[in-house]
Design goal:
The complex is a heterodimer of chains A (333) and B (288). Chain A is mainly alpha-helical and 333 residues long. Chain A contains 15 helices and two strands. Chain A folds into two domains: 293 residues, ABC transporter involved in vitamin B12 uptake, BtuC, CATH 1.10.3470; 34 residues. In chain A, helix 3 runs parallel beside helix 8, helix 3 crosses helix 12 and helix 12 packs across helix 13. Chain B is mainly alpha-helical. In chain B, helix 1 crosses helix 6 and helix 6 packs across helix 8. In chain B, 54% of the residues are buried. A two-stranded antiparallel sheet of chain B has the order 1-2. The C terminus of chain B is likely disordered. The chains are: A mainly alpha (333), B mainly alpha (288). Chains A and B meet through helix 6, helix 10, helix 12 and helix 14 of A and helix 3, helix 4, helix 9 and helix 12 of B.
């Protein structure tokens, strides 16, 4: 029981916070909209947490995977009038079907090649979208994507989006606490050790990237049905950067980190004056976080914990010294 | 046939700039064992500054200022790499991530300062006619600058003590430190040199095909593709890799859809990564 509680403590914290927040904002459409956007970014940031945080795979194309999901559902629902559920299946399946072979072909041994391959994929996908003519809507994109039939109101959409985040959080908690997750973590810190432990490195790396692409695709599906429009710039390279930033700011190796990062940056983003300076803000913040707190805000827990421990030890020592001093004084008297 | 020759000559013109961008990428790879994704952004910054300062003062001052700004930008990422090196114990992916952030940062700086319009300068109004093929004199400038830089980089890396020390510290950092080589200072100087090369490449791109604020990532990838086609471990191979990519790109742009032609460098990179050439030669990242 205790171990289950420990495994799902992040999910429980999230449920409590969500309950309180939902009660506070349930009647306010502006805040409900912000909350849905945070949930969508949380999903894509969680996908970064899965690949970068758990397996050390640097994918600079997570937004492109989300875009695959968004375009898939946009094309089948807006163009062929198929139900959104078909779009969901495609959004969950297509990104991993691209990611697994991409990683498997490239990731024979090293992480840098895979990072470059994701960059290549992101750029190529961008060109394909723009040159895709009527099928992808070219430079203009696709509009008129229908809302989800079971979540036409903002409050319902808020529940659906955060429900998806909770499901992914549970899956990620399970992953972290499983033998597969431990193999993934070994691979992140020492590939040679992982090989020696019998971990099939290319398969594990590719499978993790595929899982993370699927989570990003889920985010893209929600994005398309929430905004009702998707274009080549909607989920472009700058979004790939911002979700990386969200995950790194919050702490990519934890379950809650990417969600905290997504919430914080989406709220901060509301105060940035113009679109043009966005890149300066995101790029600058990413570098600052990497230099100052490499493990993100959740990593500060350990820093603060260590600091409190050391100050507690100091206090104990000081009390002990005083006590020794007092008893010595007594003895002397 | 005539058409093919004309496309190829235009390809060489474009390929020289890709080859020049391959220099900083392979140089940094040799010196620091990582890839700087902001190289294309230095080139765009240098090109944009060269155009605007050149337009208001005089072209030569513009070009020099542009290149200087490129060097300053790479010095910034050099300092960041030193700060990260201290904290992250040399995980090359962290620098890749930071350089991705820096590339987007610079893109936004260029957009804010210089706007969305394309940056291009074409000072030559006449063409050379060689055997019926029209070639811009700019091609001559690009090839001469490219060859001079190849020679300079070769001499610097393989004929000076600086180059020997750089290669030593890339090969075995600890041994280099024990031998008294100032590894950190060398890394920093490699970044500055990479910025210089990227800045020169940026100015040539400005005078050849032009660019806009968002060209940085495409230029980085073209340079990266050029650098790895024939193997990342020699800056000279990167130059010929650049020529190859440039020629294939212009030929496919001539015979197929122009937009899809920009997929060519990407396909090149992907093929090389897939065939495992990069892997065999041991690029950075986790060594297994």
């Amino acid at each position: 029981m205790n171990s289950l509680l420990m495994r799902y403590r992040s999910v429980l914290v999230l449920i409590v916070v969500l309950t309180v927040v939902t009660m506070l904002i349930r009647a306010n459409t502006v805040w409900l909209d912000t909350s849905v956007v945070i949930a969508i970014y949380s999903l894509i940031a969680l996908s970064v947490g899965i690949s970068y945080g758990q397996a050390g795979i640097l994918s600079v194309a997570q937004a492109a995977f989300a875009s695959v999901g968004a375009y898939a559902t946009a094309i089948v629902t807006a163009r062929y009038d198929l139900p959104a559920a078909v779009g969901l299946v495609l959004a969950l399946l297509l990104p991993p079907l691209i990611a697994y072979p991409l990683a498997r072909l490239v990731t024979r041994l090293n992480a840098l090649s895979l990072a470059i391959a994701t960059l290549v994929f992101g750029q190529a996908f961008d060109i394909i979208l723009r040159e895709g003519g009527d099928f992808t809507g070219g430079y203009i994109g696709l509009s008129g994507i229908p809302p989800l039939p079971f979540a036409s109101g903002l409050l319902q959409f808020h529940f659906v989006a955060w429900g998806a985040v909770l499901i992914v959080a549970v899956l990620l908690s399970n992953l972290i606490d499983s033998p597969f997750g431990r193999a993934t973590n070994t691979l992140r810190s020492d590939t040679l050790r992982a090989v020696a432990d019998g971990v099939n490195v290319p398969h594990v790396r590719s499978a993790i990237l595929a899982f993370s692409a699927s989570v990003a695709g889920l985010g893209g599906w929600l994005y398309a049905h929430h905004i009702a429009y998707i274009g080549p710039d909607s989920l472009g390279p700058s979004v790939s950067l911002s979700v990386l930033l969200m995950a790194v700011v919050g702490g990519a190796q934890t379950v809650l980190g990417p969600i905290i990062g997504a919430a914080l940056l989406t709220l901060l983003f509301k105060f940035i004056p113009s679109q043009e300076v966005q890149g300066m803000f995101y790029g600058g913040a990413l570098i600052a976080v990497l230099v100052l707190t490499p493990n993100g805000l959740m990593g500060l827990r350990t820093v603060i914990g260590r600091w409190m421990k050391s100050s507690a030890t100091k206090r104990e020592r000081a009390t002990a010294n005083v006590a020794t001093g007092v008893s010595a004084a007594r003895r002397a008297s | 046939m005539y058409e093919l020759l004309e496309f190829s000559s235009r390809g060489v013109l474009l390929g020289v700039t890709y080859g020049l961008l391959a220099f900083p990428i392979s140089l940094l790879f040799i010196a620091t064992d990582t890839v700087d994704l902001a190289v294309g952004a230095y080139a765009v910054l240098a090109g944009a500054v060269a155009m605007f300062v050149g337009g208001s003062v005089n072209p030569a001052v513009g070009i020099l200022t542009g290149i200087l700004v490129g060097v300053l930008a790479s010095a910034a990422i050099g300092s960041i790499s030193l700060m990260l090196g201290r904290r992250q114990k040399g995980d090359p992916l962290v620098l890749v991530l930071a350089s991705f952030g820096f590339a987007i940062f610079l893109e936004s700086v260029v957009l804010t300062l210089f706007g969305k319009d394309p940056f291009i300068r074409q000072p030559f109004t006449y063409f050379w006619n060689i055997g019926g093929i029209r070639i811009s004199p700019q091609a001559g400038v690009n090839v001469v600058v490219g060859l001079l830089l190849i020679a300079a980089v070769y001499v610097l890396l393989y004929r000076t003590s600086w180059g020997r020390d750089v290669r030593a510290s890339a090969n075995n950092e600890r041994a280099a430190l024990l031998a008294g080589i100032p590894v950190r200072a060398l890394r920093f100087s490699a970044f500055m040199l990479a910025g210089l090369l990227a800045g020169i490449a940026g100015v040539l791109v400005l005078y050849t095909s032009g660019m806009d604020f968002a060209s940085g990532m495409h230029l980085t990838l073209a340079g990266f593709g050029a650098a790895i086609v024939f193997g990342l471990h020699g800056p000279l191979r990167g130059f010929f890799g650049g020529l190859a990519i440039g020629v294939v790109e212009t030929i496919s742009a001539g015979y197929a859809n122009g937009g899809l032609a920009s997929l060519v460098p990407l396909l090149f990179i992907f093929l090389v990564l897939t065939l495992g050439r990069g892997g065999r030669q041991g690029p950075a990242g986790v060594r297994a």
